[in-house]
Amino acid sequence: MDDESPEAAYRLLHERVTGGSPEAGGSSISAAQYDAARSAYLEERGIVARVGVAVWPPTSQTIRQRLGGGSWARAAEALGLTANAGRSRGAGSFSDDDYRAAVAAFLAAAADDGRPDVASTSFTAYGAWVKSESDAGRTAPSGAAMRQHFGSWAAAKGAVARG
């Protein structure tokens, strides 16, 4: 493919999801639909995505950042499409207290010698902890939600440390 731009990636995967080209003013596909189509596309071609290796088509996260400043809806609008209705930006299901409690619980688990599964306080370790919490039937904000809420993972940990 000659054009490996984020726009070309979106067009390709939109066509794979809907069977047609995206049309100005038409509806966009969701980020989840985009990522599912991307995974299928890569698998069909035997391409393995690895951290630190640029693979085309890019992830929905890259599309969000490059075309929408972090927003899938704004990325769709930059492509001349109408974003599908979804929750409003930042309107998650967790309160500020929920975010702080989740960080505090994670940091406590990381400090607990009886929890070798939580060996650091890194963003990656938080993501694994959220998954283990989910597997146990408990909910916690995702790492991405934490970053959005606090501005960064370091700020999330700092907010809890300051009380």
Describe the structure.
The protein is mainly α. Helix content is 56%, strand content 0%. The chain has helices at 6-18, 31-45, 60-68, 72-78, 96-111, 123-135, 143-150, 153-162.
What structural class is derived from the secondary structure elements? mainly alpha
Mean pLDDT, rounded to whole units? Answer: 84
Q: Give the fraction of residues assigned to helices.
A: 55-70%
Report on the biggest sheet: none
Morphology: elongated
Q: Any low-confidence stretches, pLDDT <50, length ≥5? A: 87-91
Order of helices and strands: HHHHHHHH
Structure described in brief:
The protein has 163 residues and is mainly α. The chain has eight helices and no strands.
Quickly list its features.
163 residues; mainly alpha; 8 helices; elongated
Itemize the secondary structure elements and their pairings.
Elements: H1 6-18, H2 31-45, H3 60-68, H4 72-78, H5 96-111, H6 123-135, H7 143-150, H8 153-162
Helix pairs in contact: 1-2, 3-4, 5-8, 7-8
